[in-house]
Amino acid sequence: MTRTGPTNNHISWETKSIVPEDGRRIDSGACQDARPKGRIRRSMTACNTCRKLKTRCDVDPRGHACRRCLSLRLECELPETTERFQDNVSTWSDATAIPSIEERLVSLERGMGEMIHLMRQMVNRSPSTPCSPILQTRHNSLDGTSSSDSISSSFHPLKPAQIIRDLQAECFGERDHFSDADILGDIVTQGIVDSKLSLKLIELFVEYFGHWVSINHSSSIQRSNTLLFNTACLLATRYLPGLSQHTVRDISLCVQHAVAKVLWKPPPMSSDMLQALTLLCLYSTSVHKEGLMDDWLLSGISINHALISFNFLNTLPGDNLNPDELLAQLRLWNTLCATQLHSALANGRTVNIQQQFIDQCPRVLEHAAATPEDGRIVAEIQLYRIALRLQHTQHRVQFAETEYEDLERWKMEWAHLLTTSEDSTLNLNLWFCQLLLYRTAARVQPDSERLLPEICGTARLIINQFLQTRFTTAPALIDHVYFIVGYAALTLCDYTLTDPLISQVRGFLLHLAPGGDNLSYRIACIVGEVQRRYSETSAVVTAGSHSSSPVAEVKGVQMFGASQHHRSGMDISQLMSSAEGLDSLVEGFVSFSDDWNNWWSYADRASAEGVA
């Protein structure tokens, strides 16, 4: 029997075409679509060995060899597929990311180590007994600190500027008051000075004070800008010591009256008014005893006006602004911020500027016309921010070292500005911040004796630097510099009364003073009066030899009582030794005393009692 059926001919799937019974042609591509995908994937992914043996190639898509080749220890040649290529790319990208991850891990470990180290130091240094509520303080940022909130009642900040003002009121009486009937308008129209003298005063102002407010030509100041014109003439009188004190007083009254009206004008304020207010913030005591304006209050109000008037504070950095106008606004803003920080640290008060606006200060350095003076202002702003933060952080002050890391980093960053100019006051500001921090730490540390060399040495650095000031630049120094020098002299009176630098700086200040109403004259008188009272107290303590602790006797003496009537002026000859001539003082002296005396500080006692 024969079997009948279709012929079983071999047909190649790759090369032959199939013609069905209905006559339609089916090409090989269509057959491949109809073929099971599993077989196609196995044939395409099998290695050469398994393909030749026609066996199953069991391989992981992410592997590098099949099981047969691995067991037989053969070299497995796998075909390159799209999936395998993508896997290799991801593998290489992961490998290149490993160093970055390691660096991040190392950084995190380093940060955790530093935190643990700081926590251990705080635990080891803190007393075993719980802290009393008096010593507990809140941790505040720079913008949130205040003398009454961030520090406990027994940890008041030092107030050198307030101390000097109180002593001035005691030595010279309260300031005179002026009424609305005083002089108004510009000083030429009022007949205080003639036009020729006013032109001379404006020229002197442009030469010595104009850089603060971007005024480089006398034509930039018009008589129509009454406040700016009168303020410029008032500051320039420092360089005309022969000018009548009555004339200076009349100019001062004009400025005060104008300020009283300008501050309460509705915003926005014109640029010339802001320039005048900025100058008065720097030289708040230039209006003499009739106008002892509070630079902290004045700068705070001026800053509020500037926030409304300045465009760059409300504009993104990328917006188009006139470059010259932007530079002038940035300089005014930086000067106002610096004055606010100066007065906040010197008066133990809070800072009335938000952090986002203080961060605008370095933008002035991006301008093509920026000067080294602009850099020094920015450096001072950062310096006083650091000092305020340290002073209002109790554990940093209580366990202070002789060198603060924050200040050391600041010195490294601005080292190029610390030694570039003889007339620069950046070093004085640095030493002043260090002096305040040392004296603050000495009041709360049990072993405060170790800080005495740092305190006295820093005060000497300030005075020695000031004695090298040229007479042509001394009248242009801002009032804050004179407060720094006065506080350094009072510090030497506290700790080493016989230091010859006290008499030297006192004589130098008197030589700089054109008259009895000048700030340098008043600080010299204050230093002389404090030195005299300490000397009298020292004599009383020495006479009472029965006392076991002379320092304790000094602490019990009230150095400064209630304010009494004083003469309108003090005899300069009473404040200077006959052996010390002014000519020798001009050249300055460099002498250090090795004898340390533990004198009770009036400044510290007054601050603790709430007087300062």
Spell out the blueprint of helices and strands.
Elements: H1 28-34, H2 37-45, H3 48-53, H4 67-72, H5 82-125, H6 160-172, H7 195-208, H8 226-236, H9 245-262, H10 271-282, H11 295-309, H12 323-347, H13 355-358, H14 372-391, H15 394-398, H16 405-413, H17 415-418, H18 426-444, H19 452-467, H20 479-495, H21 500-512, H22 519-543, H23 550-555, H24 572-575, H25 582-587, H26 602-608
Helix pairs in contact: 6-22, 7-8, 8-9, 8-10, 10-11, 10-12, 11-12, 12-14, 14-18, 18-19, 19-20, 19-21, 20-21, 20-22, 21-22
Question: What class, by secondary structure content?
Answer: mainly alpha
Instruction: Choose one word for the global shape.
Output: elongated
Order of helices and strands: HHHHHHHHHHHHHHHHHHHHHHHHHH
Helicity range: 40-55%
Give a count of the beta strands, DSSP E runs of length 2 or more.
0
The oligomeric state is: single chain
Q: Spans with pLDDT under 50 lasting ≥5 residues?
A: 1-21, 25-34, 91-98, 126-154, 178-183, 545-612
Count the DSSP helices: 26
Gyration radius, in Å: 39 Å
Taking the sheet with the most strands, its summary is: none
Mean pLDDT: 73
The proportion of strand residues reads: under 5%
Distance from N terminus to C terminus (CA atoms, Å) equals: 133 Å
Protein name: Transcriptional activator of proteases prtT
Organism: Penicillium digitatum
Subcellular location: Nucleus
InterPro entries: prtT, Zn2-C6_fun-type_DNA-bd_sf, Zn2Cys6_DnaBD
